[in-house]
Amino acid sequence: MKNKFSSGGIIEAFTRRVYEAVESYIANPFKYAADAQLQISPDDLTVTLAESDSVMPDCICVEIGGLVEVTPEDKLVPSAEGVATLVARFCT
Q1: Smallest Cα–Cα separation from 43: which of 21, 14, 72?
Q2: How far apart are the first and last CA of the chain?
Q3: How far apart are CA 19 and CA 23, in angstroms?
Q4: CA distances (Å), 54 to each of 12, 32, 36, 47, 82, in order?
């Protein structure tokens, strides 16, 4: 049975929002506390980058650490596997 977020356009838009939030974190990681996380609204898949002390009601929180990886050159990049796993959690 498909869920309400299983259409291609919705999946692509959600994936893009997750990547944008992760890239925003990577661009300025010191702006956020060590416990930075994505807050995702299960109603409309809105993605917000926040700290754990500012959790919005009814949002699902995902730690940013699982969505970031370090390259051999010690550069932070979005984790394609982490993002794909997160998207599948909401869109399958």
Answers
A1: 14
A2: 9
A3: 6
A4: 27, 12, 10, 14, 23
Take residue 18 and report the two structure tokens written for it: 């997750």
Predicted structure pTM score: 0.85
What's the pLDDT tens digit per position in 56-75? 778 899 999 899 999 999 99
Q: Write a three-state SS string for the chain.
A: CCCCCCCHHHHHHHHHHHHHHHHHHHHCHHHCCCCCEEEECCCCCCEEEECHHHCCCCCEEEEHHHHEEECCCCCEEECHHHHHHHHHHHHC
